[in-house]
Amino acid sequence: MDNSMSEENNLFSQALACLKIKQPAQKVNAVYDMRNRWSSGELLLQRLPEVLSLPVPGRPEKPELVDPKNVPKRNFINPQGRLSLVHAITHIEFNAINLALDAVYRFQDMPQQYYTDWIRVAAEEADHFTMLSDYLTKHGVSYGDMPAHNGLWEMAVKTDQDVLIRMALVPRVLEARGLDVTPTMIEKLQPTGDTQLINALKKIFDEEIGHVKIGTHWYKELCEERGVEPEQTFLVLIDKYMSGAKFGPFETEARLEAGFTAEEMQRLLNLYTP
Questions:
Q1: Which of 34, 74, 252, 271 is deepest in the core (most CB within 10 A)?
Q2: Amino acid 4: pLDDT
Q3: How far is Cα 102 from Cα 56, in angstroms, rounded to an integer?
Q4: Does 61 map to a domain?
């Protein structure tokens, strides 16, 4: 088979190509194209001879990446503080595109439904990024104008050796954190009357429940396949890879909808409630 033709129709090659794109709008369009080609059956699952380590994914030169404590302060009422908040979330969504693409590219021995799920996540994260980027543009700011941090991708690198660990810690910890904080953000924004932003955050919240649910599904499938107990394993992995991290307060109802069990939530509350 011609190698160029093989790569053109190989889902893993296409996911890697999307991952390497630096310009955000190009990456978004490439993700949509990959989703459409996968849905039409045009892309095939053909393992690559080598899976590359990606300490730095495709991303633009800006934003400047800084320590989290040096990220601009966010404020819900002050317009400039609100733009800082939106810029921070926009950066999270851009990273989430790359995380979903990496979940497709990196773990090449999973069932077909796994790839359907994570391609869907990548496309929805691209929607979120575009909504928020458009909001920034409307208010005279571009993605990259403010500093941001690299915490999300650092976790991708830490978990690149094992799909079970990735499913445990990226969707069920980092993305689930969005479920915990977004309802409060929406509540604090209500007095501003900023319906465009409020509606965008509501859409993101609803779809992120689905993303965490996908991660939870595959995490539990992998635990069952390997004969390990999922709830205790989850706590062990948090302790090993995220020791010292702060958790809570939890948005329990959203986490239950996303596949956490009541028993699991109680264990998290017992461990991490101050």
A1: 34
A2: 47
A3: 12
A4: no
Q: Residue 186: which of 79, 86, 260 has the closest Cα?
A: 86
Q: Is 103:166 a contact under the CB 8 Å cutoff?
A: yes
How many folded domains does the chain comprise?
1
Q: Which residues contact 36 (CB under 8 A, 6 or more apart)?
A: none
CATH of the domain at 96: 1.20.1260
85-127 tens-digit pLDDT: 999 999 999 999 999 999 999 999 999 999 999 999 999 999 9
Helical H segments across the chain, by residue range: 3-8, 11-20, 24-39, 79-106, 112-138, 151-158, 163-169, 176-189, 195-226, 230-241, 252-257, 262-272
Residue 265: how many CB atoms within 10 A of its CB?
15
CA angle at 242 for the pair 104 and 83, rounded to the nearest 5°: 75
For residue 95, what are the contacts with CB-CB under 8 A and spacing of at least 6? 152, 153
Which of 57, 56, 53 lies closest to 159, judged by CA?
Answer: 53
Domain that holds residue 167: 3-47+69-272
CB atoms within 10 A of CB 139: 14
For residues 109, 114, 119, 120, the Cα torsion angle rounded to the nearest 10 degrees is 180
Residue at 155 is within a domain:
yes
The answer for 260, left when phi > 0, alpha when psi is -120 to 50, beta otherwise, is beta
How far is CA 124 from each of CA 50, 74, 238, rounded to the nearest angstrom? 28, 25, 26
Low-confidence ranges of the chain (pLDDT < 70): 1-5, 273-274
Predicted pLDDT at 1? 43
Has residue 60 been placed in a domain?
A: no
Cα–chain-centroid distance for residue 85? 17
Q: How many residues does the chain have?
A: 274
